[in-house]
Design a protein that fits this description.
By secondary structure, this protein is of the alpha/beta class. It has one domain. It has helices at 16-26, 40-43, 50-61, 92-98, 114-120, 142-146, 160-166, 184-190, 224-233, 252-266; strands spanning 13-14, 33-38, 45-46, 66-72, 125-127, 133-139, 170-174, 196-205, 208-217, 238-242, 245-251. The strands form three sheets. A seven-stranded mixed beta sheet has the order 5-6-4-2-7-11-10.
Amino acid sequence: MELSHSKKTQFAVFNQADLSKQLRTIGVVEGDVLEVHASIKSIGLVLGGASTLLDALLEVLGFDGTLVMSAQSWGNSEPAYFENPPIDIELFHKVRFTHPPFRGKTEDFHSMGSLVQALQMRPNVYVSSHPQAAFIATGKHAKWITQVHPLNDAFGNGSPLGRMRELKAKVLLIGVDYDRCTGMHLGETLSEARPILIQGSRIQIGAEAKWIKFLSLAYDSDDFIPVGKQMEQEQSVSINLLGGAITKFFPLETAVLKTQNYFEAMK
């Protein structure tokens, strides 16, 4: 039986103009270098979906702005560390030597969400070269941010995060918590509190795909949540709404320093 009109769930509807206006209210301005992590469904009914949110972000950032998002591919990694799900040791060789090599802009980033996939489809987009911890960017500083990404420095000063920090980037979380904030990995790295481990990925080298080993860290973003709560208590985070989604807007520099201090205190 069909529900009566009064009992049907009512959804707010948002178009690009609505989102652009609210992004400006949140504090995003033209020329910003902005790291974004978003849950589209938390906003409500967005006409046009992720592409509309992307258009709103690019409109507000303008010609001199830069949009950056994390584009991670942790499936292309050392199988001994697989947890969800773990695999039998007999299958390690199969993963290491038959996984498709990292493809850059054409990589499958479906696990990073629809906003990353929407950006991936646009022209003038740059993707850094790290096979596990890439960044995707567009705008004024996109090429410089993504042009160098050492295998042994996924989230350190030599990574795109280091250049974003130089550019005084800001972070916008839309309907997600601090454990989704990739920028905080820079503070985690600088603290030197995490164990070093040996990682590996399949990478295209010339005409051949090879399994390459490199040093990494035992990253864990779960610890970013208490750091974020501390930032909120210190009023370093601007909390607002984008549609029905709670947004958290803050300087990357603040997040890096607070995260580094948090981990150094735990040593």
